[in-house]
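To: structure subgroup
Subject: Chain for Friday's discussion

All,

I'm putting the inputs and outputs inline so they're searchable in the archive.
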Amino acid sequence: MVPGSTRDDMACEVPAAGRNHTPPPWLGPLGIAVAIAPVLQRAILRPANLPEHLGWWTVCIVVFAVADQFAHRCDSRRLRLATLAVATAAACVAIWLIPVVYGGAALTAALLVVVAARLHELRPRLAMTWIGVQSLVLLAVYVGRWSTEVGTSAAFGFFGFQLLGYAFSRTAAAERRARTELAATRNLLATAARRAERNQIATDLHDVLGHHLVALQLQLQATAASHEDRHLEQARQLTRLLLAEVRGVVDEMQGRDDFDLQRALVQLQDPATTPRTEVIVDDEKALRRLAPSAAREVFRAVQEAVTNARKHAAASSLRIEVRDGAIRCIDDGRSWQGELAGRGLSGMAGRCREAGCGFAIARDPGLGTTVTITLPSATTGGSRA
């Protein structure tokens, strides 16, 4: 199982193709019907003058029918080819026993066409050798019973039919393999798309809900300790912000994305909470260059920086400044040692990459942590779409 995949993902994986039933199972019975039709016609119209060796000829037809169907249903390639060899031998003996029937028809050779169509899994050189041997046997029988000219023409005619049957079955097999591979690729793409969508939803839930829920938890703890209405009002404000963020995510997933990064950053400013958050925007052009989807990714990264400052750094103040083509989140708390591998910071870095922005963290045990998000310049393709 692929890491990170679920049982639903594995259920969508395409199994091995298994047996390749090309050509179709009815081809053998059709060939047998063509071969026995003239014999049945003679038996009906001239029952007193039946062909010689009719009994043994019938045995050969039955052996051919059994071998053909067994080869069609067999899983072992080696056993299939051995069974086809038996079918070829039975067809050649049947042709030798009754090469010419009522009206001059000699359709028992249609069985060789069926065998040729079953050879699609062989390499062309080996298949051509097999067909050539069948055709030489047919030529020897026909030349022995007919004139050289007529026998040669009939043998070469059936040789052409065999080549046609082989080419048709090989093309059908290639098409079948292509369809199987296409279905497998489409299922794998669908599985990858579902996995990516789940990862995106998980990241959004973490970044959007996590940021405000941490702040809400702290405010509720402060309310329980101090019984002050100020903390309760801040908790209510955080609840409203959380609801607005959830609606924003829904709008984004539904394609109604019109995100104002500057306004979202300013809403993070709150001097009454811990850490005290100050937002300074001196480079509005850099923010406006971002497309709405990229701006939302950048904002999620900034939210995560605020959450980390509150949750991990125990900072008392946090300054978010936008200047010189970058967003810097500077706190005065303790550094986040050992946190870079966590989901939060790795998510920040991933969101910045998705938005086409640079990402860096500078830690100073005495001064706190600075998160820098470098915004695309006007010449790097980060302009609004």
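Points worth raising on Friday:
Strands lie at 276-281, 317-323, 326-331, 358-364, 368-374.
The longest helix spans residues 148-226.

D.
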